[in-house]
Amino acid sequence: MSASLTLSDAMVGTTLAPTTFQWTEKDVILYALGVGARPPDELRLLDEHYGPAVLPTFALIANWWAVKDLRATLDLGSFPIVHSAQSLRLDRPLGASGEVSVTAEVTALWDTGKHAAIEVSSVGVDGEGPVFHASSQTMVLGAGGFDGTRGPKADEAPQAASDGVYTDTVRPEQAAIYRLSGDRNPMHIDPAAARKFGFEDVFLHGLCTLGFAARALINVVADGDPAALTSISCRFAKPVKLDSQLRTEIWRQGDKIRFQTRQGDVVSLSSGTATLAGC
């Protein structure tokens, strides 16, 4: 680890180099497989004869560069970083193919005491205007203590019984499939790489787990229509093991949906909120 790291509010407003993301039907089908979609129940996500329909969280593949490039942009050295929270708002549904230009900037810097948290906000635009807005939070482990603002508290899960539950299976090869959508971090496929960074074994990508949760919301609340999901956010609480089950618990609160995703008794995604049009 680097001996020191200087963080300050002056970093807020730092822009990342813009990028362009293109995709085809093959990319959206591969993503759907990577986040657990299976035939025949989810053919609309997997068969080009049905569109294919595009999961809204596919937009986060276009946004991944903003998380990946943060280390170099802010000169974070070798301090370990982890993706700790994510939000996404769709201005309109994604097409089965397309191209967006994405811009991003640092919009907040928080001091949790032991760690630092950096928020990066981004927007994806095509020829018709904005397509999505996203906000990613990255924890810089061991970089806290610079007298910064502590940041917002996490939302607690509802105490009432859930209104719906969706149980899914994380297959042994799940991370190997998902990484083909762009995040090739070896910690998710190579046990030696995972142990090097203090993990017992490989684990699922956080954004892949969020994709599982998005499918759960779509299937339980929106009768399988991905276009209904217009926003989603969560915190990444704990890593998800492969070859296991996930259970997403869902609560309706007026026009908002609350959710959390568990692996056994361990909460993997916390502070989940979403909006689904017409639901």
UniProtKB/TrEMBL annotation:
InterPro entries given in the database record: HotDog_dom_sf, MaoC-like_dom, MFE-2_N
Molecular function in Gene Ontology: (3S)-3-hydroxyacyl-CoA dehydrogenase (NAD+) activity; 17-beta-hydroxysteroid dehydrogenase (NAD+) activity; enoyl-CoA hydratase activity
Source species, domain of life: Bacteria
Name of a matching Pfam family: MaoC_dehydratas
MaoC-like domain sequence ranges: 157-266
GO biological process: fatty acid beta-oxidation
Residue ranges of domain Peroxisomal multifunctional enzyme type 2-like N-terminal in the record: 21-140
Homology family: Belongs to the enoyl-CoA hydratase/isomerase family.
Protein name stated in the entry: 3-alpha,7-alpha,12-alpha-trihydroxy-5-beta-choles t-24-enoyl-CoA hydratase
